[in-house]
Amino acid sequence: MAEDKLKQSLAILNPIRTVRLKDKTGNFEAILQGLLSDLETPNTLSVLLCEQIAESIFWMRRHVEDKELILLEATAEKIDKAQSGYGSDRACTANDVKQVLLGDEALKRKINNKLKKARSNTIATSFDGCRAKAFVSCAREVRIADDLIQRQMLNIRHLQRSLDAIDMKSRIIRRMDLELERVERDLTALEHDPEAG
Amino acid sequence: MTQKQARANRENAKKSTGPRTRSGKGRSSQNSIRHGLNQALDLEHDNRFIVLLRLVKGDGYSHDEAYSIVSAILDHRRVMQACDQQYHAPKEVFGRAEVGMIRELEGDAELGRITIGYNDRLSIGRFKARVGRINEGLGSALVQRVRRLGKLIRYQRRSVAQIHRTTREIKNDKTNPFISKL
After folding, report:
1. Structure confidence by residue, pLDDT tens digits, A158-173
2. Distances from the Cα of A114 to the Cαs of A8, A117, A178, B33, B68, in angstroms?
């Protein structure tokens, strides 16, 4: 049933696709197909709005990833600066920081030892200290990323309401059609009522 | 392209008297436009708009309803396409050409083709440090991307609000006494 709905929706959407993203992961298509399969009465407007909602969800994921990466990169940069005095040669990467945050205690101890031994280290002598300094240094960008995520949430909410409004309109039109059919049926029933004459 | 060719190109470009053809003038008139999101949409010449308008009208919407909602969606598309462009834009680097030229000069000096004096070396060092500081301020590619996207938030707000407003007006049709009686 859902597959039929999806096929029906894709048949309407494919010739008029408006969203073209450079997405190699296939995430956007997965989100879009999920939304389209839930559509009750697919028509041009509803599939277009679904496409916009799917894009907003996709963008929200992108912004969340960016926000996480900003914090990881800033922490890695602080650790590098603390270790060597320069941020140019990357001994610690964002991936290393992620591993530590995911619970790699051995790597954390290794970084802490290097930080303690580092000469002319004026930043911090521990991983957590570097992380705290990184949070402060990239606060502005994190705030922008938060604003972007918030914007996508509001976009989704507005588009969802728009979809509801469109669906309401089609439901009203369908209801009107049914009412007209009933009136016509009643009218013919009256005309053919043998007891009426 | 070598640094010498790039220098020659720049020198030749200074002698240019600008675009001559109508299409060239049209193209150069767009040079200072960053994203063009404040400009009105040119719907009359947009085939996509014409097709969508026909399809939406075919679903039972009036011409005015279809026109307003399709134009609102296409305006939103323009904003989101600008966001996608900004997302994939290359990293901005200050003084890339100048640093390249300095490297070339330093290479020549190492090979003994030219001699760089003490004062020139000091100036080069100061210039490199300044470029480094400016590039540090510009941030990584990721930070630049987030900053660029942040500038487009207000356009997204405007375009989505327009879609919402248009569809709400369509929904309000149900307060029409004819429909509400049903």
Report:
1. 999 898 888 766 666 6
2. 60, 5, 76, 49, 62
- Considering only CB atoms, which chain B residues are within 8 Å of A141? 139, 143, 146-147
**Residue A197 falls within a domain, yes or no?**
no
Inter-residue contact A133 to A124 (CB < 8 Å):
yes
Interchain CB distance below 8 Å, A170 and B140: no
Contact residues, B window 88-147, toward A, CB-based 8 Å cutoff: 88, 136, 139-140, 142-143, 145-147
Q: How far apart are CA B138 and CA B149, in angstroms?
A: 15
Which pTM was predicted? 0.77
What is the domain count for chain A? 1
pLDDT-based confidence at A24, cuts 50/70/90?
confident
Name the residue range of residue B76's domain.
41-90+155-172
Inter-chain contact B163–A19, Cβ cutoff 8 Å?
no
In a domain, B55, yes or no: yes
The model's pLDDT over A55-71, given as tens digits with 9 standing for 90+, comes to 999 999 999 999 999 99
B98/B135 same-domain check: yes
Residues of B in contact with A173 (CB under 8 A): 60
